[in-house]
Amino acid sequence: MSLTPSLFPELIQALIDDIAAHAEEVTELDQAIGDGDHVFNLQRGLQALHEHASEIAPLDWVAAWQKIGMTVMAAVGGASGSLYATLFIALAKSGRDKVIDISGFSDAFLQAVEAVKLRGKAEVGEKTMLDVLVPVALALRDEAAAGKSLAEILDRLCQVAADGVEATRDMLATKGRASFLGERSKGHIDAGAKTAQLMITAIAAVLKK
Ligand code: ADP
Ligand code: MG
Ligand code: MG
């Protein structure tokens, strides 16, 4: 299998299906400590990407990431929309001077996650999607540097993502809407961390086929 944006339509369909399958669960999470719209926001973004999938498929990765970022930016409101738009636009920027193999991608992805941290003025441990994205980016870099196979890397990333979600449960939210609840944010998993994990796992399943 060639890892090019020709996979994009299949990847988007997998994300749409996986978010739909977990919609109720994620909505409950965002209702508990947010405003309940996280699934709606994500689905808007995914639907817009689905509509542009045939334009994105023939591009190279850098052009594809730029287009993905701009599409998400235009389509989605909410914190998650601007943060995912930032992730992909930053991925395009940092991927520009790299060969996009696993190692080049791991460097670019780590830089893109740094851009998300800057955009949201947030760090690991604040009960957000970053509690999945940061450990996954670090594990990807380490696994790629260790020369692991794609299948081994993907399995490891799925495990790290699941651990990241679970870690948000006992965190105090200090960013985003959940921070308004203070101590009452504890005891709930963060919705954005959960969907980051779901999307990473769905992407891994497509790439492992
Ligand atoms: P909104 O909070 O505007 O309604 P969403 O519900 O779509 O937007 O997204 C909420 C998710 O966004 C949270 O669960 C959290 O994971 C993530 N989030 C919120 N603020 C930040 C931030 N400053 N940095 C990183 N992620 C954040
Ligand atoms: Mg919300
Ligand atoms: Mg909202």
UniProtKB/TrEMBL annotation:
InterPro entries: DhaK_L_YcgS, DhaL_dom, DhaL_dom_sf, Dihydroxyacetone_Kinase
Pfam families the UniProt entry points to: Dak2
SUPFAM superfamilies per UniProt: DhaL-like
Residue spans crossing the bilayer: 68-92
Keywords, in A-Z order: Kinase, Membrane, Transferase, Transmembrane, Transmembrane helix
Domain DhaL, first and last residues per copy: 6-205
Top-level taxon in the UniProt lineage: Bacteria
GO terms, molecular function: kinase activity
NCBIfam families named in the record: dha_L_ycgS
Protein's name according to its UniProt entry: Dihydroxyacetone kinase subunit L
Organism: Methylomonas albis
